[in-house]
Specification:
Layout (H helix, E strand, L loop, with lengths): L7 E5 L5 H9 L4 E3 L10 H7 L11 H6 L9 E5 L2 H4 L3 H8 L4 E6 L2 H15 L6 H6 L5 H7 L6 H11 L3 E5 L4 H11 L16 E3 L2 H7 L2 H10 L2 H11 E3 L6 H22 L9
Parallel strand pairs: 1-3, 1-4, 2-3, 4-5
Antiparallel strand pairs: 6-7
Helix pairs in contact: 9-14
């Protein structure tokens, strides 16, 4: 086994800025972040069994997984970001067994905002045609989408699993908190000197301008390939020219319905993380 084993994991949640965070951390001289986002090595079994509609393949070969970190030289922290590690229960234990001294970073976003943002992303990629409200009201007719959007928003049990496995080696932060303060907390958590980072624009809710662009953009392998060779900011500039702004409205009625679905779990989650989850879609 290579001694270049990852010891830093951004595990979620999905649609909470993990890609941007990974980019910020990669700017630190003491941190090496995999250029491949979402290798999903520790969740490959569940992803393959779920037969999801995303056109990506998780790494199930240890050699290929460790090759993501072959360029590590002096860095103290070797990291990757896979949000599926939070959703699938067994991942926390697998990571702990594989890299016992590793540290975990979890960004938590209000589950309603996370769910709708996830839906808008899939709409942008051409992975869903149904209306969001229809998926919420008829889960049996949209099982895979319901799992991706709604089920992923029940955080408390998953947070407890990571707390049990990693204790003080788990850092939980709110989505869209103060960037400077969040990075300061992360650098302190990792026991490395703070640095100033070059700000990266977050993914906007945009739709491809035509079907051809959508077919290309919906291919996960193509997106990962582009991500390997082009800087994040250049990708954002290209998207701003090839995409149009997406409607992000959520009805008051649907928001209220989702509040009822998540109420108990939000309450427990807030007790576990020590901060309030705020929705921006009200």
């Amino acid at each position: 086994m290579s001694n270049k084993i990852p010891n830093l994991f951004i595990v979620g949640v999905a649609k909470a800025g993990t890609t941007v965070l990974a980019n910020y951390l990669s700017q630190h001289p003491d941190i090496f972040m995999s250029k491949v986002k979402e290798p999903d090595f520790f969740s490959n079994r569940e992803i393959n069994e779920a037969k999801l509609y995303y056109k990506t393949k998780p790494l199930n070969n240890e050699g290929k997984y460790l090759s993501l970190f072959k360029q590590v030289s002096h860095e103290k922290w070797i990291g990757e970001a896979s949000v599926s590690y939070f959703f699938y229960k067994a991942c926390a234990e697998r990571i702990k067994l594989y890299s016992p001294e590793s540290k975990i970073i979890l960004i938590v976003r209000h589950p309603i905002d996370r769910a709708y943002s996830h839906y808008l992303m899939d709409k942008r990629l051409g992975f869903v045609k149904a209306d969001f409200e229809d998926i919420v009201k008829k889960p049996a007719s949209h099982e895979k989408h319901y799992d991706q959007y709604i089920q992923q928003g029940f955080y408390s049990q998953k947070i407890e699993e990571y707390q049990n496995q990693f204790g003080e080696n788990l850092l939980i932060l709110p989505w869209q908190g103060n960037l400077e303060l969040s990075l300061k907390k992360i650098f302190h958590f990792l026991n490395i000197a703070p640095i100033e980072v070059t700000e990266v624009e977050a993914n906007k809710s945009m739709l491809p301008k035509n079907d051809f662009l959508q077919r290309i953009y919906s291919n996960g392998m193509i997106r990962k390939g582009i991500g390997k060779v082009l800087p994040v900011q250049l990708i954002q500039n290209i998207k701003s020219k090839a995409f149009v702004k997406q409607d992000v409205k959520l009805s008051d009625e649907m928001h209220e319905n989702l509040e009822k679905i998540y109420h108990a779990d939000i309450k427990k989650t807030q007790e576990l993380v020590g901060f309030t989850l705020k929705s921006n879609f009200k």
